[in-house]
Amino acid sequence: MADLSAIEDWAGALLAKLTPTARRRLAVDMARQLRTRNAQRMRAQTDPEGNAWQARKPPGPALRSKREQIRQQAQQRKPMFAKLRMQRYLKAKSVNGAAVVEVVGRAQRIARVHHFGETAPVKPGGPMHDYPARELLGINDSDAAWIGDYLADYLSR
Question: What is the pTM of this model?
């Protein structure tokens, strides 16, 4: 993960001079851009550092019907967390002048389990499964460089 303390030291005094409304608008716009960057990484199935996620586990024993086998194979080809990337669940906002990207609602539990690699039931009342850690949200070095460039551009206007 990127260290943002250098950017905070450099831009902190300059950002303090902005009006609260201008700071909030800046934070919301940055959060939206970071949400887009994180959603693109989720689509590519990589963590913030660029490492590929662990693949889904292979399908279990052969299913009885050909229809179930086809359905299961189609499920294996679909990208993970397709709905979690939607703006409906992946929110970008400003909280106390800070840019925040978070997963909200019922999807937050699913994201937490997969992000940290916890044990959870496959379905309510179903068997427990150890999910591998797949980092969904984060800031890497290129994001930190983009934040610095974006702040410099914004403050120079």
Answer: 0.84
